[in-house]
Backbone:
């Protein structure tokens, strides 16, 4: 029994689509996890700097820097939450694509 070329091409496309999407999500996930790590590193560095500056409270330079750190931390916390949710969403997408690949096959 011979299959028409169009049906064969359509079947190959259907099978390959989840694999391509899994690879694309994996690449995006790698970049997002890198950004997530950098934001976390920045938060830790600011927290460490804040702890180092706390004993020097009262000095003008230390007070200015402490105020700057206090302004930056809420923004970084928001960014890390957004980035974490994006990473979780991509993990969910990869799982859906894997399940989809098994259903198609």
Residues:
């Amino acid at each position: 029994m011979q299959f028409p070329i169009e049906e064969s091409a359509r079947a190959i496309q259907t099978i390959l689509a989840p694999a391509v999407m899994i690879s694309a999500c994996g690449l995006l996930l790698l970049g997002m996890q890198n950004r997530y790590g950098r934001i976390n590193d920045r938060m830790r560095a600011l927290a460490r700097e804040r702890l180092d500056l706390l004993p020097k409270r009262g000095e003008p330079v230390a007070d200015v820097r402490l105020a700057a750190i206090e302004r930056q931390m809420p923004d970084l916390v928001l960014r890390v939450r957004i980035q974490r949710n994006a990473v979780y969403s991509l993990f969910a997408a990869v799982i859906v694509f894997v399940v989809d690949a098994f259903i198609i096959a």
Notes: The two ends are 21 Å apart (CA to CA). The longest helix spans residues 5-53. Residues 5-100 form one domain. The CA atoms of residues 7 and 13 lie 10 Å apart.
